[in-house]
Amino acid sequence: xxxxxxDRRARNVRLASGDAFSRRDPFVIxxxxxxxxxxxxxxxxxxxxxxxxxxxxxxxxDRIQKLAxxxxxxxxxxxxxxxxxxxxxxxxxxxxxxxxxxFHDHADHSYVPFTFDFIKVKxxxxxxxxxxxxxxxxxxxxxxxxxVLVVEDIIDTGLTMESLLPVLEARGANSVRVTSLLEKxxxxxxxxxxxxxxxxxxxxxxxxxxxxxxEFFRDMDHICVISDRGIERFTEETRG
Length: 240
Ligand SMILES: Nc1nc2c(ncn2[C@@H]2O[C@H](COP(=O)(O)O)[C@@H](O)[C@H]2O)c(=O)[nH]1
Ligand SMILES: [Mg+2]
Description:
Number of strands: 12
Bound molecules: ligand LQESDW3C, magnesium ion
Strand order of the largest sheet: 2-10-8-7-4-5-6
Helix content: 25-40%
Largest sheet: 7 strands, mixed
Structural class: alpha/beta
CATH topology: Rossmann fold
Number of domains: 1
Distance between the termini: 42 Å
Radius of gyration: 18 Å
Shape: globular
Order of helices and strands: HEEEHEHEEEHEEEEEH
């Protein structure tokens, strides 16, 4: 199925939180699109460990600036509580707050004051389809009455977010929305979609920009597809 068509179908979505809000479209990275490795600077220590560059770092940053504008528009003059999902979401979180902070300098714009916190989330698929989630870190009691915006690196099956959101809502948050830099077009998707999504990507395992494979690749700026050699090498390294 063509990537754009697949994404259009995916927009017949169940949004987080039963929120009546209708999301904007993510930028679609086509199934065949990749950027040649020899045209970009890839860290020497990962040479051969990535197959292709899916999203160069500059494009990531440009897209985040627009996501920040969308968020500012929708939350105008409302304080948001950003909840960054570690560790994968941390690079996106940093660049997003940098973009949001810039709006503070322009008196002619609406402001987006924000507070933030960090959590770690592990989701478990039990025998039932709902799954369960283990949250560590973060002050969940402080969510009461807040407009929570979860900041995630990637939505794959959607299970993690589907499990997390009811927990946040049960803590009395005023609203809960999700921004994810990436969203995978996968047949395994539960149908969950975030509100503010940077890129819809093909069903490939990506690393870089804080997305890891066995804790490696977080220090690479571009978002890349891991190679077979990379999988082999960093599986070996973690075995010790
Ligand atoms: N480094 C990568 N991590 C990935 C990728 N796809 C998913 N993930 C991790 O899983 C959760 C979300 O998964 P979900 O199935 O519950 O939606 C995400 O936060 C990542 O930590 C990937 O391609 N690369
Ligand atoms: Mg994550």
